[in-house]
Design a protein that fits this description.
By secondary structure, this protein is of the alpha+beta class. About 35% of the residues lie in helices and about 25% in strands. It has one domain: Aminopeptidase. The protein contains three helices and four strands; from the N terminus they run βαααβββ. A four-stranded antiparallel beta sheet has the order 1-2-3-4, covered by helices on one side. The mean pLDDT is about 90.
């Protein structure tokens, strides 16, 4: 199921973002880029502002996508355990 962000989803989204960058995409970035991309962020504020769509599997958030109002995809990440 895919649905809009709900309050309380932000910790899962932050975890997915960090794990996807460090486990799935790490070969595409320098160590400095990895640190900058996956550093601590205010995910609650970001999610409340962006209102991402989330993928739910077995009751858990396993992926998310952020769309800008013009249709631009800002972020699209999946839990490494569900990639492929």
């Amino acid at each position: 199921m895919v649905r809009r962000y709900q309050p309380g989803d932000h910790p899962s989204i932050a975890r997915i973002f960090h794990q996807a960058i460090h486990r799935l995409a790490c070969r595409h970035y320098t160590p400095a880029q990895l640190h900058a991309w996956a550093g601590e962020k205010d995910w609650l504020t970001r999610c409340e502002n962006k209102q991402p769509f989330v993928k739910i599997h077995d009751g858990k958030v396993v992926g998310f996508i952020e769309l800008d109002p013009d249709g631009h995809i800002d972020c699209c990440f999946v839990d490494p355990g569900h990639a492929g």
